[in-house]
Design brief:
Layout lengths: L8 E5 L9 E6 L8 E10 L4 E6 L11 E4 L6 E9 L4 E2 L6 E3 L4 E5 L4 E3 L5 E7 L6 E6 L4 E3 H4 L1 E3 L2 E5 L6 E6 L5 E10 L3 E4 L11 E7 L5 E8 L2 E6 L3 E4 L8 E9 L12 E3 L15 E3 L3 E7 L1 E7 L3 E3 L14
Parallel strand pairs: 10-17
Antiparallel strand pairs: 1-2, 2-5, 3-4, 3-6, 6-7, 6-8, 9-11, 11-15, 12-13, 12-16, 14-15, 16-17, 18-19, 19-22, 20-21, 20-23, 23-24, 25-28, 26-27
Pfam families: Ig_2 (PF13895)
Keywords: Disulfide bond, Signal
Protein name: Ig-like domain-containing protein
Length: 331
């Protein structure tokens, strides 16, 4: 197998940093024959262009025989990439996907839910917390645009405020000019009469989650229905659907709706949100027909947390489909 046809797999440990932690990088290839040398890089963000360049890690410019590398005293969020080579002259693999270690920065949302009613009185705040005073909130919208809070909200200190009838569908995260990142969250807005109400932050595999059907105005409902991938899974008066331990079999699009007694609008259904066995709802549900966006975009990865990086590859969207993001590309 030619080296240049392989994509190595990079793992980092730990994923979340405490002060002064060492970070261990492990780079593996599909065919672990002898003769490989491993090269290690830090991904350096360039926020004006939203691209990353690779900077060799100190002491690694000539590669290592061992498939691991230790970074001592890492204190801030950082992204890493590896690649491998063998032969004379050397034949290199592709770059691995970028993997991040995180400094503990977080993005919180109020109200704490993934879906929101779009009304004149809608008020949404997104607050960044971490070791920086220079946070900004970014959004990658369901239409494929990457923008900052100042474009669609108002940034006051570490908080972005969104008010009134605003378009809010997209993935949000905090970022600084020095390359610190927070977790990412997906938010959906709707003019429908119902939403599926659950916390905006991820629920990892094995944890319980409750989905509640919430109404814009109070309704006297005889039956409240929950659907998975448009198939009815519960049809009663409880108004909530409980998953005791999220697993692979629970993956799918969930929505709710109801039929009421003498209620004209009681048949409305909520938007659909995705549940994954690793995370909740980091899926954009789009209304337009399939589009392609040859512009800068955002890549999400799942390792208990949802991570993000930039990419220059094309992304294709289709209505109500899980987005398939491309691999990390370094410039």
């Amino acid at each position: 197998m030619s080296a240049d046809k392989l994509v190595p797999n990079l793992t980092v440990s730990p994923s979340w940093l405490s002060s002064g932690d060492s970070v261990t990088l492990n780079c593996s290839v599909k065919y672990p024959d002898v003769g490989w040398r491993f090269y290690w890089y830090k991904a350096i963000p360039n926020l004006p262009t939203m691209l990353y360049t690779m900077e060799p890690l100190p002491g690694s410019s000539n590669g290592t025989e061992q498939p691991y590398f230790i970074v001592y005293g890492q204190a801030q969020t950082a992204g890493y990439v590896c690649r491998a080579a063998r032969g004379n002259p050397q034949s290199f693999t592709y770059n691995s996907e970028v993997k991040f270690v995180w400094s503990g920065a977080t993005l919180s949302v109020s109200p704490d839910r993934a879906q929101h009613f779009i009304t004149d009185t809608m008020s949404l705040s997104l607050t960044c917390a971490g070791d920086s005073a220079e946070w900004t909130v970014n959004r990658f919208s369901s239409y494929g645009y990457l923008t900052r809070c100042a474009t669609w909200g108002s940034m006051t200190g570490p908080t972005c405020y969104i008010n009134g009838q605003s378009f809010i569908d997209g993935v949000y995260w905090c970022e600084t000019a020095t390359g610190l990142f927070s977790n990412a969250v997906n938010i959906t807005g709707t003019y429908n009469d119902a939403i599926v109400d659950f916390p905006v932050h991820p629920v990892t595999e094995g944890q319980p989650v409750t989905l509640r059907c919430k109404w814009k105005t109070e309704l006297n409902l005889a039956v409240i229905s929950f659907y998975k991938n448009d198939k009815l899974i519960q049809n009663d008066t409880r108004g909530e659907f409980f998953i005791p331990a999220v697993s692979k079999s629970d993956e799918g699009f969930y929505k709710c709706g109801g039929k009421g007694r003498m209620q004209r609008s009681a048949g409305s259904t909520s938007p659909a949100s995705w549940i994954d066995s690793g995370i909740l709802s980091f899926i954009l549900v789009t209304n337009p027909p399939e589009q392609q966006h040859p512009s800068v975009s955002v890549t999400l990865q799942v390792h208990g947390k949802t991570l993000l990086i930039s990419s220059t590859n094309l992304i294709t969207y289709s209505s109500r489909s899980k987005i398939n993001f491309p691999s990390f590309v370094c410039s």
